[in-house]
Structure prediction request, 154 residues.
Amino acid sequence: MTDRQIDIDGIKRRLPHRYPFLLLDRVLDYEPNEWLRALKNITANEPWVNGHFPERPIMPGVLLIEAMAQSCGLLAFVTREAEPQAELPPSAPLFYLVGVDKARFKRPLGPGDSPHFVSSLHRVVRGIWLFEATIELDGRVVASADIRCTMREM
Prediction:
């Protein structure tokens, strides 16, 4: 693993989410203040599989948005970590989802898929972090959204 990858333990140090709501498995690469690429391995054991939908399980759109937001939160966190004079609070700050715009779903995802979640930092305005997020599978865009979040100390 390179310095620009983050395993599940590193994700847990940066995000407060836990099973079944921690939706990313690994950060594959990132550039602070610019972009982050994360991975999720969707399995048949996901809590939503039996009910959405039993005959053809697909990952719910709200969970796709949440996973995109988690990748944006990770990008915000590694960006803050990389600031030379960063004074991070003693416990990890929370990045709250405050807005979603232009959400588009182009193709369903289900068990056996391993999509990449790509977040790009657009800008930070008055404490609101603005991101463009996409989900890709096999080089094709599956979903996209503009995500806004803000940082708060725990």
Q: What stands out?
A: The helical segments are 8-14, 61-82.
